[in-house]
Structures are given as C-alpha cells and as structure tokens.
Specification:
Elements: E1 4-10, H1 18-29, E2 34-38, H2 60-71, E3 74-79, H3 88-97, E4 110-116, H4 124-137, E5 140-141, E6 147-149, H5 152-155, H6 165-182
Parallel strand pairs: 1-2, 1-3, 3-4, 4-5, 4-6
Helix pairs in contact: 1-6, 3-4
C-alpha cells in the first residue's frame, strides 16, 4: 500500500504555539505508512480576493497552498480560538483552498479538526466554525476524528504534547480515523 499523505494546517503562526506542537505530536504519532506534514507558509498568503485569484496569475503562496492541499490524501486542521472563533490565517487558507468554488483543492478532501485553547471550553467555538467553513468549502469533514484540548497552558505549559501519553493516544486516534477516511474504510464521516 502506498504512503498516505496528511497535510496539517495550523491556525497559529507563533513558532512555539501549543497548536503547532499538537500538530507535531500528531505527526510523531502517525503509524507506519502515514506521513503528516505541517504546512509552512500560511503567513505568506495574501487575504483572499477574487481580483487577484485569476488563472495564470494566482499569487505564488496561494498556489503553493492549493497544490499542497491537492497532493494530500487528507487534511488535519489544528485551530486555536481567537476571540471566540478560528484564526484569520486558517480561514484564509480555507478560502484559497476552496476556489474555484465547487472545484477547489479542498473539495471532498477528508479533513479532521483538532482544537485547543487555554480555556476549559477547549476552543469548541473555533472548532465549530472551522467545521462549518470546511464543510461549506466542500471538504469531507470526518466527525469521528475531532479532538478538543482545553486548559492547554496548564497541561502543556512545561511539556511538549508528544511527551503526554494521553494526548499522543488521542492524536493517534484522530490520525487513524482520518487515514481510514482517506482509504474509504471509515463507516461514517
């Protein structure tokens, strides 16, 4: 069986963000035959604007994202919660990957959402908004692969999530369900 490629889109640009570390831990927990790659470059993509989304002259950073999404078998979206919703950088990535509407790189792409925040709410508002935006964009959202982490400042303040056995087990389950969805082995998405 060929390698399954999962592309992780992290909604926080901060190098030491817990959300980024969760994506790294997901990559660390991936089973043999599965490659989880964190997408670098979301900060370079201009805000979506139809005036610059013109075939043949799409901004290079936006085209690189579209190409990476198209080449991936599935997406792992890791979202913080900013002011009760998902970050602008993540929403912008979804917007670019969804175009052209109905035929964008994200169309029918199996996608899992992981949310994390310092509050006990575990970024569930951002999670819900991410699921909504991804679904409207045409992604195939894998509900069984959803995961929420709350009070991350306390839980992961002194340690990396890959050193937390429970977090690794949960992330491995998310990656497993996402991989099963990419292979058509998951009963419901």
């Amino acid at each position: 069986m060929s390698q399954t490629r999962i592309l992780a889109l992290v909604g926080s640009l901060r190098a030491a963000s817990v959300n980024r570390r969760l994506a790294e831990a997901a990559a660390h927990s991936a089973p043999e035959g599965v490659e989880v790659t964190l997408y670098e470059g979301l900060a370079d993509i201009p805000f979506y604007n139809e005036d610059i989304d013109v075939p043949g002259s799409v901004p290079a950073a936006a085209q690189a994202l579209r190409d990476a999404v198209a080449e991936a078998d599935g997406l792992l979206v890791v979202t913080p919660e900013y002011n009760g919703t998902l970050s602008a950088v993540l929403k912008n990535a979804i917007d670019w990957a969804s175009r052209p509407y109905g035929a964008g790189a994200i169309k029918s792409k199996p996608t899992a959402v992981v949310s994390a925040s310092i509050s006990p709410n575990a970024a569930q508002w951002a999670h819900g908004d991410a699921v909504k935006a991804l679904g409207v964009a045409g992604a195939r959202v894998v509900e069984s692969a959803h995961l929420h982490f709350g009070v991350i400042g306390e839980r992961f303040g002194a340690t990396h999530p890959r050193d937390d056995a429970e977090a690794l087990t949960q992330l491995a389950g998310t990656v497993r369900d996402l991989v099963e969805a990419t292979r058509g082995e998951l009963a419901s998405v």
